[in-house]
């Protein structure tokens, strides 16, 4: 028996897909949209400033540059953009720094260790939640409180996407399908990485 099982994408019907792909070779906040990106096993997005075996985000490099890079790929669900638009914030794919924009899948509800099959070849293992920082308010004033809030019990809710590491490389394009393979055993909820 397999240690994993294929599942219908959380909160979705058939049609979970990639809607945009983005990358940037510099440590800019936003990433320009691309026709395609190439995911490299164990590294991240080819040519992206955050690709690498060890941490590349400036704040984490300052803390300990030898730590493993659990943030090789950043994914955001495009349904968040509709929610932000309703609150008066116009945000387009790539503008919050994500590499992959998705549709039809509850990214935030996935457990740690979920494998996302992106397109015909690539596999990304989900490591945790993006921890949004104050740069989001520099991009658009008041946006941080829209992507980080509190639940009814006072717990922090982070909505700015998830992070992952590339297990199998491949080229990814808008329109590519997304498959979900949940880990076996007890599912651990995502925490910030």
From TrEMBL:
Domain MOSC stretches: 27-181
Region of interest called Disordered, as start-end residue ranges on this chain: 1-31
Gene3D superfamilies in alphabetical order: PK beta-barrel domain-like
GO molecular function, one term: pyridoxal phosphate binding
InterPro entries with a match to the protein in the record: MoCF_Sase_C (IPR005302), MOSC_domain (IPR052716), Pyrv_Knase-like_insert_dom_sf (IPR011037)
Protein name, per record: MOSC domain-containing protein
Source organism of the structure: Streptomyces gougerotii
């Amino acid at each position: 028996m397999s240690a994993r099982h294929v599942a219908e994408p959380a909160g979705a019907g058939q049609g979970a897909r990639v809607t945009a792909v983005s990358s940037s070779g510099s440590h800019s906040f936003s990433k320009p949209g691309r026709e395609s990106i190439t995911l490299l096993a164990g590294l991240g997005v080819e040519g992206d400033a955050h690709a690498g075996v060890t941490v590349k985000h400036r704040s984490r490099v300052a803390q300990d540059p030898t730590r493993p890079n659990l943030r090789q790929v950043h994914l955001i669900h495009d349904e968040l953009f509709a929610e932000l638009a309703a609150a008066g914030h116009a945000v387009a794919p790539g503008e919050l720094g994500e590499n992959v924009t998705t549709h039809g899948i509850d990214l935030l509800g996935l457990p740690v260790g979920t494998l996302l099959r992106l397109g015909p070849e690539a596999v990304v293992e989900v490591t945790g939640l993006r921890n949004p920082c104050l740069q989001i308010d520099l991009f658009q004033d008041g946006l941080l409180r829209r992507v980080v809030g509190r639940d009814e019990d006072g717990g922090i809710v982070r909505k700015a996407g998830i992070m992952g590491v590339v297990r199998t490389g491949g080229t990814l394009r808008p329109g590519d399908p997304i498959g979900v393979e949940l880990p076996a055993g007890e599912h651990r909820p995502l925490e910030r990485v």
